[in-house]
Amino acid sequence: MAGCAGRAPPGSEARLSLATFLLGASVLALPLLTRAGLQGRTGLALYVAGLNALLLLLYRPPRYQIAIRACFLGFVFGCGMLLSFSQSSWNHFGWYMCSLSLFHYSEYLVTAVNNPKSLSLDSFLLNHSLEYTVAALSSWIEFTLENIFWPELKQITWLSAMGLLMVVFGECLRKAAMFTAGSNFNHVVQNEKSETHTLVTSGVYAWFRHPSYVGWFYWSIGTQVMLCNPVCGVGYALTVWRFFRDRTEEEEISLIHFFGEEYLEYKKRVPTGLPFIKGVKVEL
């Protein structure tokens, strides 16, 4: 299953990523190994080393680069599942780990299936931006500190469940938007119209002009509600609101340039879906 020099057959990246994601998620079997006599940390270290050795044996670049990322996200998902069912104050963080890993993996998988021409390693969104990384690290630090000093704050199950529902809603809406847009969807705002670029107004785009942004907006805030992070909850809400306000205006300038009156009519008829964000203002 070594990589080949030419372009991989259609769908091969999707199949490769799915197989290695599931391989990483097989860490769920680790409790069976510990019951067989291995100590927890020793078993985990051997398991990680074995996974990497297997991937190095099976794949060559660039397929290894896909495999290691998908396997890592599957591993995080599996660890999150184990933590979710643990009898500890970290079980809600396990929910978060599952949500985060699934989000990043599904971004790649849906792109591989739906719009393979735009597929790249960046489709995992693991290197989205420095701000995104800092925001994630901040939420982990807040959860850890509050879990140490105020553990009861992290056991508000109804609040974490509400956050989980927000995450599920946001994830489903974003992926529905990606599937509905098809090859028109791209992770990078397009400044030039391609020959196949069409204005999508059906499906979830009949509800919101920017359903993928609406989904990501509620997903990101939902992760902090799930973690019961009051500081990052407020910080995320303000930050992502500002980000999507600017991103929406930037994208709509291009869309008006691409589609002219057709988009302006659509803009009048359908809201952005983002609270208090109306999109770019058009001078008449």
TrEMBL record:
It is found in: Endoplasmic reticulum membrane. One of its GO terms (biological process) is methylation. One of its GO terms (cellular component) is endoplasmic reticulum membrane. The keyword S-adenosyl-L-methionine applies. Belongs to the class VI-like SAM-binding methyltransferase superfamily. Isoprenylcysteine carboxyl methyltransferase family. It comes from the Eukaryota. The chain crosses the membrane at residues 16-34, 40-59, 66-87. Its EC number is 2.1.1.100. This is Protein-S-isoprenylcysteine O-methyltransferase. The keyword ATP-binding does not apply. Catalyzes the post-translational methylation of isoprenylated C-terminal cysteine residues. Keywords: Endoplasmic reticulum, Membrane, Methyltransferase, S-adenosyl-L-methionine, Transferase, Transmembrane, Transmembrane helix. Pfam families: ICMT. PROSITE patterns: SAM_ICMT. GO terms for molecular function: protein C-terminal S-isoprenylcysteine carboxyl O-methyltransferase activity. It comes from Neomonachus schauinslandi (Hawaiian monk seal). Its main location: endoplasmic reticulum. It catalyses: [protein]-C-terminal S-[(2E,6E)-farnesyl]-L-cysteine + S-adenosyl-L-methionine = [protein]-C-terminal S-[(2E,6E)-farnesyl]-L-cysteine methyl ester + S-adenosyl-L-homocysteine. It is a multi-pass membrane protein.
